[in-house]
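Suppose a classmate hands you a notebook page containing two proteins, each written out with its sequence and a corresponding row of structure tokens. How would you begin to make sense of it? This section walks through that situation. The first entry is reproduced here exactly as it would appear on such a page.
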Amino acid sequence: MRTREIKKQVWLNEEEAKLLSQRAYNAGLTESDLLRFLIRGYEPREKPDNRFYESIKQLRLFGINLNQIARKANSINHIDKELYNKEAENWHRFVESIKDEYLRPKKTDI
């Protein structure tokens, strides 16, 4: 069942229609999704290039390796758990900052 029941029709000139299509494409959204973001005061970001996704993949692999190292070190009691937790938290914050920079829409002042 449809969650949106109200239909709105908008008239655009050729330039506006091209801009709407291009901005939606660049953000990886449908035109309707883009308009919904804008109405709520968010400016969607352009979809990042493949370098971004490769960086995220590498960060995830780093996290997996860090986790494996921690498990082994914990099993032989040769790790500073507090230091490891601090470093793991830093890593998580770094990943979130990358997502904020490249993926998440930013709130605009409307």
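The notebook's second entry, a different protein, reads as follows.
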Amino acid sequence: MSTTPNPTPTRPATDPVRARRQRVAKYTLLANRIGYLFYALAIATFVIGFAISFNGVVSGVVIASLVIGSILLAPAIVLGYGIKAAERDDREHGR
């Protein structure tokens, strides 16, 4: 019985590009969830402030929540679309 090497090259079990893409996708999903949570906080605070009394603290919370939510969501949405496009391209080209 001879031990000849396999003529076809084998791919590594974990592709480093795909592994990094999965890590980025995980953080993107987390940023999406936290960003939308801040948007929900802004809306709830605005409604409560409108119903009870709209003062400086309420407007500060609303503005801060909108700013933090926007800072988290803007890159997360763009990266999410990029990751989905890269995965679709890999599937279409058999990679």
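A careful reader of the second entry would note: The helical segments are 16-51, 56-92.
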